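Lab notebook: predicted structure, single chain.

Context: the supervisor wants predicted structures on file for every construct in the current expression panel, including those that have not yet been purified. This is the next one on the list. No modifications to the sequence; it matches the entry in the shared construct table.
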Amino acid sequence: MNTTTIPKQEFYDRIAKFQANIKAAGLDACLVHASESDMANVRYLSEYWPTFEAAAVFVPAEGESVLLVGPESEIYAAHRSVFTNIERMLEYRESAEPECPGMAFKSYKDIVAK
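Prediction complete. Output recorded below exactly as produced.
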């Protein structure tokens, strides 16, 4: 059985190429969204795919990209993704939209400021 994996550097190179395209298009950033049924683009950039919550990758034209996950996906994302910059956002919680008492979340404004 062949268990070839994609080297981490390949993901970093993909982000760098994407950032060059963002700059060339005159944009400040790009938000790449994924769900459990349509995860290809986020997985391509981060090697993470959501299993029951949504996710996204925020890619600024310059600087570090951020993997955005729902309240219950942070630990799985940290083990699966090549990203170390991972933030939980309420907007990416699962579709039943459970309450998350006592949990702190980032906003889009926080992510852009970061």
